[in-house]
Amino acid sequence: MLDRKTPPPIRAADNLLLPKATVYHLRNNIPVHTISMGTQDIVKIEIVFFSGRPFEDKKMVARSTARLLKEGTGQTSASEIAEQIDFYGGTISIPVNLDTTNITFYSLSKHLDALLPLLGEIICEPSFPQEEIDAFIANSQQRLKIDLSKNDTVAYRVITENIFGKEHPYGYNSEPMLYEQLDRKDLIKHHQKSMVAGNTIIFLSGKIDDDVLKKLDQYLGEIPQGPKRERVPFPELPTRVRKEHLHHSDTVQTAVRIGRKLFNRAHPDFHGMYVLNTIFGGYFGSRLMVNIREKKGYTYNIFSSMDTMMFDGYFYVGTEVSNELTQKTVKEIYHEMEVLQNDLMSEKELRMVRNYLLGSLLTMLDGPLNIINVVKETVSEGVPEHHFENLVKTIQHISPQELRDLAQKYFRKEDFWELTVGM
Questions:
Q1: 266/310 Cα distance (integer angstroms)
Q2: CA pair distance 159, 262, nearest whole angstrom
Q3: 299 and 329 in contact (C-beta within 8 Å)?
Q4: At what angle do helices 130-147 and 61-68 cross, to 10 degrees?
Q5: Same domain for 43 and 120?
């Protein structure tokens, strides 16, 4: 008889291992990292092109090319593409990333013969119709106008611009003029130079058999050859940090961003900072949440984040508070940094954070579609093969002393840009 009074025992997530992907190569030599698991006849294909901002010759071209890929080919209109995908119950999405263009495709195995040719056509033969380009420019400018009325959007744009500089691929912002300067020839050129086999990795997951691999090679093995594209030279980063207030709109809240340049996932301190960021502002029980939301009641939400890219990264704190509480909030943010720099955290708090992080990583290993996301993250960003396992070990074993050392190294007030946007 089922015992509903006694809860199941709590077990530690001790043995977290990332399943190793099998690597195949298509006839055009594109590597295919494959996780074959599960019982459902579903296939997920994610095609990663190294064609983002670090590889563009003109601002906004990478984003615009990605957004317009599905808007028609030499043979099929945008509406026909959408209709065919819907008819077979598939999905094709092209999220915009700073470093890459990712085409994410889902389908039932039995419909691959119907949808894979269309996917190959979208990749190899986009026509970039002028009317779609014009509509994209108009819509983007209108959406930008709306976004720029929001304090938090302005704050995010300016803090990244301050950290990296206005001309850096990670620092420049979309502007109406940049959209107006887009030309169809720019999109065609970027597509031909960047979306080639030598610049591509494919990540395949689901219930995979030889027939699926054969079909993948049949339709995506036709992506034309070409060399791996080198990134453009990056300008020098700003070296002198400063405080800045931007007067913006008649609102009752001020957006706060405090940030600094950090590093990408390959840096030796990434794993430790991943834990420290969680403690500081990376989950609901973080230091910032407990102090500034729960004890002080200054804000509904406050967080810290480590954003990593292929070639760099940055750390920032974000919140929105009433105008009269802005400086008090900023003071408390720095106070929490100083506490982490000076005091050793308790084993009780560290144990809570360990369990939270290990539980989060456990969900990332739940099924092939989640596992392939971890594989994609490590492979596309060029981190070591055992990156995930090393992260688990760091979470399990990092000491309060090591966390204090990291806070002393990376939480120095003089290294942070400080930005407030509001009244």
A1: 9
A2: 13
A3: yes
A4: 120
A5: yes
Reduced to 3 states (helix: H, G, I; strand: E, B; else coil), residue 205 is strand
**pLDDT tens sequence across 216-235:** 999 999 999 888 888 888 99
- State the angle between helix axes of 184-194 and 130-147 in degrees (0 to 180), rounded to the nearest 10: 100
**pLDDT tens per residue, range 229-261:** 888 889 988 888 889 998 877 778 999 999 999
Between CA 86 and CA 80 the distance in angstroms is 10
Does 102 reside within a domain? yes
Do 361 and 410 fall into the same domain? yes
DSSP string, 301-366: -EEEEEEE-SS-EEEEEEEEEEGGGHHHHHHHHHHHHHHHHHSPPPHHHHHHHHHHHHHHHHHTTS
Q: How many CB atoms lie within 10 A of CB 392?
A: 22
Per-residue model confidence (pLDDT) at position 16: 85
Helix (H) or strand (E) holding 391: helix 387-397
Per the CB < 8 A criterion, the answer to whether 311 and 239 are in contact is no
Nearest-angstrom CA–CA distance, 55 and 229: 7
Residue-wise pLDDT tens digits, 146-194 = 999 899 999 999 999 999 999 999 999 999 999 999 999 999 999 999 9
Q: Which residue(s) pair with 101 in the sheet?
A: 49, 96
d(CA 359, CA 13) in angstroms, rounded, equals: 7
Domain count, the chain: 2
CATH number at residue 183: 3.30.830.10
Same domain, 281 and 165: no
Q: How far apart are CA 61 and CA 187, in angstroms?
A: 6
Do residues 105 and 47 lie in contact, with contact meaning Cβ atoms separated by under 8 Å?
Answer: yes
Neighbours of 421 (CB within 10 A): 28
**What's the CA gap between 65 and 317, in Å, rounded?**
32
Low-confidence ranges of the chain (pLDDT < 70): none
Are the CB atoms for 111 and 88 separated by under 8 Å? yes
